[in-house]
Amino acid sequence: MIESVDVLVVGAGISGIDAGYHLQAYAPGKSYLILEGRDELGGTWDLFRYPGIRSDSDMHTLGFSFRPWKEAKAIADGPSIKNYLRETAEHYGIDKHIRYQHRVKRASWDSGTARWTVEVERGPDREAATYSANFLFMCSGYYNYGEGFTPEFQGREDFRGQIVHPQHWPEQLDYKGKRVIVIGSGATAVTLVPEMAKEAAHVTMLQRSPTYMVSRPSQDKIANALRKVLPSKLAYGLTRWKNVLLGMYFYKKTRTNPEGVNAWVLERVKALLPEGYDMAHFTPSYNVWDQRLCLVPDDDLFAAIRSGSTEVVTGHIDRFTPKGILLKDGRELEADVIVTATGLNVQLLSGVAFTVDGEQVELAKTMTYKAMMFSSVPNLATSFGYTNASWTLKADLTCMYVARLLNHMDRTGTQIATPVLDDPEVEEQPWLSFTSGYVQRALDKLPKQGSKRPWRVHQNYALDMLDLKFGKVEDGAMTFRKAGAVRRDTTPELMAAE
């Protein structure tokens, strides 16, 4: 039996819960279900369980626009974030629409009926099930939940201690009084190192190259003061806009005066390190925000370095040894536990196989429309957050636009919405301009962006608000038709070769 709804949402993390709220609030006539592959909601905040797991964005922008974050800490720990998501889903009744242990495998679009047929494996026995929907909204994040990225380390099997990847943290891992090496210098490593240093004998953060870091208090004094004198929603909204505007200003400065911003960031890091500390360990070869900026709340990483419990080593790994890690320069670092905080494997749209009217869709050959839909692919949207700001800022706008799109189809008596690229002046560009390893490894699998609206990826909340919340739905690129109508978006290169 095929279960049918108007909108099928895939993923019950931040974006999926956001989608549920917006569908209920702004397209209340639409029925919907949320399919979640895991046993619980929360997405990233349910998956990652490593010590110290926390946000690297403030909760006034990582939180939902419609539900204020009321805790004192703006940089929140993982369990607090998951609790916020759970309470939000329960408060709005979104949790009643979630089907757990439902793993989407394939989705097939039929223009004759204007329906997606979605094939699912559900439950522990992976029983086959089928769902049907007019609109498919992928809210499943951007990386492979099944496995993280770990390079091939020669001699890995020789190491006599324990090797752990943060994406699969053993619940009973004992590192108290032990020597730990954390490989990596990204957000996960920067979170793990100071937390593990509280109990470990010594922690070494081993990096191939440095990352820019900024320190800030975990509590937002202005937000906490506003909440004492203003209604919580107003205080939250003011704080949210304060942080959005400050973030946009800072990012713009990194583009217009990169050398000045680089120096400013490094000066502040130097002031937090011991006298005479080698700044080479914190001086990247790129500019601020060419890769993601790492947040250090309450100076915790620098405090661990000052205490002597933590050191940062920059070098290339030659091989693992029985006692630890041998670097190419001949140094050997000894350890009882090695944590490979080496990144994620990008997996767009959960690796689902899509077909449109019998033709396989190759997303890498499409161009994204408003960074959320794909050229020549009807009634399919995805939620993808910012690389230079909080994920939820973009998720909120994307979910709002999906509701607007659905309402527009109802008003016009159409059932199919397809972005069509027929402007010869639009030039193809990489979807993400980040130089981070996880992005570079996946460029050949990602869609493209265009050189002008509505195909350009802004990475700018104000511009996206104008486009997604207030811009015209009928903008010349988005086409509408009724079920069974002949498609005019027949660009052959956007479909996989036979």
Structural summary, described in words:
This protein is an alpha/beta fold and 498 residues long. The chain has twelve helices and 25 strands. It has helices at 14-26, 44-47, 59-62, 78-91, 187-196, 221-229, 232-256, 258-272, 300-307, 391-412, 437-440, 461-470, and strands at 2-10, 32-35, 98-99, 102-110, 115-122, 127-138, 162-164, 179-183, 202-207, 213-216, 294-297, 310-314, 317-320, 324-327, 332-334, 337-340, 353-356, 359-360, 368-369, 373-374, 380-382, 416-419, 428-430, 448-450, 478-481. β8 (179-183), α5 (187-196) and β9 form a beta-alpha-beta unit. α6 runs antiparallel to α7 (232-256). The longest helix has 25 residues, at 232-256. The radius of gyration is 24 Å and the shape is globular.
Cα radius of gyration in angstroms: 24 Å
Q: What is the number of helices?
A: 12
| Class inferred from helices and paired strands | alpha/beta
**What is the beta-strand fraction?**
15-25%
Overall mean pLDDT: 91
DSSP strand count: 25
Provide the helix percentage. Answer: 25-40%
* Uncertain stretches of 5 or more adjacent residues: 488-498
In whole angstroms, the N-to-C terminal distance is 32 Å
Q: Please tell me what the overall shape is.
A: globular
Biggest pleated-sheet summary: 9 strands, mixed
